[in-house]
Amino acid sequence: xxxxxxxxxxxxxxxxxxxxxxxxxxxxxxxxxxxxxxxxxxxxxxxxxxxxxxxxxxxxxxxxxxxxxxxxxxxxxxxxxxxxxxxxxxxxxx
Length: 94
Prior knowledge:
Layout lengths: L11 H15 L12 E2 L3 E4 L2 E4 L4 E4 L9 E2 L5 H14 L3
Antiparallel strand pairs: 1-2, 2-3, 3-4, 4-5
């Protein structure tokens, strides 16, 4: 039997936006898509224009505001994106 996985979104980059929203909420800030609040922990870093998943050295960049011209340093499956973002979300609340 194939392993089922829970997907929050069908577009993995929407999970990046959700992660940025969660980071802003944790800091008590409103998410500004043009000026993403910086966060840095052992799992990932997020700055304006760049996300780095430290465990696998995956870099996601965007142009001017979050969600525009998003590019990833590697081709990942949806399952890999999901695991990465769930790991990052979990790290916000450790």
